[in-house]
Amino acid sequence: MKKLILAIALFTSIGASAQTEKVTYKPLMQQFVPTDLSTYRPVLKSTLDRSYKIDPTVGYTIQETKPGSKIYVLTDGVWQSAAIVTTTGVVLLDAPESYGMNIEKMVKQVTDKPITTLIYTHSHNDHISGSRYLKNIKNLEIIAAKPVASYLKEKNDQKRLVPTNSFSGKLTLKKGDKTIELQELALFHSNESDVAVYLPKEKFLMVVDLLTPGYVPFKNLDLSNNMHGYLKAFDKVLAYDFDVFLAGHLTALGNKEDVVVAKAYATDLYSIVKKLYQNTDMMKVMGEAAGTIGWENKFLLFNVYLDKIIKEGTDEVVAKWGDKLGGVDVWAPSHVSTMLNYVKWDD
Ligand SMILES: [Zn+2]
Questions:
Q1: Distance 119 CA to ligand 1 centre (A)
Q2: Measured in angstroms, how far is the CA atom of residue 111 from the centroid of ligand 1?
Q3: DSSP code per residue over 169-197
Q4: Rounded to the nearest whole angstrom, what is the distance from the C-alpha of residue 10 to the centroid of ligand 1?
Q5: How far is the CA of 289 from the centre of ligand 1 (A)?
Q6: pLDDT of the chain, 347 residues: tens digit per residue
Q7: Helix count and strand count (H, E) for the chain
Q8: Distance 101 CA to ligand 1 centre (A)
Q9: Cβ atoms of 143 and 167 closer than 8 Å
């Protein structure tokens, strides 16, 4: 009996795998799962040359962004936050999860002043879940945009401390000798609000998860749900007078040129995708595929059409930007896909 069951099982599984092998079409986004990691382009030398030097035995660093500014970047080489040392105390900008337990220790390396204030740029876990390690700081003031404060209050998840103060639109803070301007920008990244933090005297600007200095933006254009807002955000950022730009991620401190380059990348991506969208005959592409598989599987036929644009767009983006920004070949398929969603459904 056991042998019979085994024989049936074997027969069924052989049958199933033979059936699977008949399927030759593989969705493009799955083809980009890295099977051969050595085929990816190495990080550009120009990007490596400007990277923070971090002692690997420590794993993080705190460095002044500009001599005498008393604005420090805290980073572990992947996330970035800031500490502003004022005459009356320290104002933190974000508290990333990855090095949250070390933030107080890092700040003590540069000042004896107490941490009095924490400002959230947006609600995402990776940038503010480290706040839970600051819960024992007495009378800690936590400031966020109103929609972020409401969201975190509703979530009440213990990882992200709930804001004590909130604002709409703009808020100017006077903290000791520092003036800090907060502004809700176009919704370009998170679902609730994305806030710019600006210190006019020091020409320091922090806008998180819009771009990555030296690299293309993260997957799906920094996980943006709003490409209209994303494309608009660059001009809003460039309207500020700044020379130091803190982007929230990866290996380097940014500057105005990084924002200009990222805007050029996003604008070029838009043009490439728009052109391919206008020049690709959807019914012709689907009709050719239907010649092989028939018209029943509508989702598959539509995906063949989308994948054709994603493939051609990716090739063009990588050819144009591969030697200018890091990670183009890693994220271009997702960038083209996100931009195509916008161009087709929202533009
Ligand atoms: Zn984010």
A1: 14
A2: 28
A3: SEEEEEETTEEEEEEE----SSSS--EEE
A4: 48
A5: 39
A6: 444 444 433 333 333 333 444 445 555 655 555 567 878 888 889 889 999 999 999 999 999 999 999 999 999 999 999 999 999 999 999 999 999 999 999 999 999 999 999 999 999 999 999 999 999 999 999 999 999 999 999 999 999 999 999 999 999 999 999 999 999 997 899 999 999 999 999 999 999 999 999 999 999 999 998 999 999 999 999 999 999 999 999 989 999 999 999 999 999 999 999 999 999 999 999 999 999 999 999 999 999 999 999 999 999 999 999 999 999 999 999 999 999 999 999 99
A7: 12, 12
A8: 20
A9: yes
Cβ atoms of 127 and 218 closer than 8 Å: no
Q: Which residues pair with 171 in a beta bridge?
A: 182
The CA–CA distances, whole Å, from 258 to 58, 112, 262, 331 equal 28, 33, 6, 18
Give the amino acid at 124: H
- Evaluate the CA torsion angle 37, 80, 162, 219 in order and state its sign: negative
Q: How far is the CA of 153 from the centre of ligand 1 (A)?
A: 18
What are the backbone angles phi and psi of residue 141, rounded to the nearest 5°? -85, 130
Residue 162 class from Cβ within 10 Å (0-12 exposed, 13-18 middle, 19+ buried)? middle
d(CA 201, CA 199): 6
Distance CA 77, CA 96 (A): 12
Q: Which domains does the chain have, with CATH numbers?
A: 50-255 (3.60.15.10)
- Distance of CA 3 to CAs 11, 12, 13, 15, 16, Å? 12, 14, 15, 18, 20
Q: In terms of Cα–Cα distance, which of 102, 87, 52, 98 is closest to 73?
A: 52
Residue 208 Cα to ligand 1 midpoint, Å, equals 7
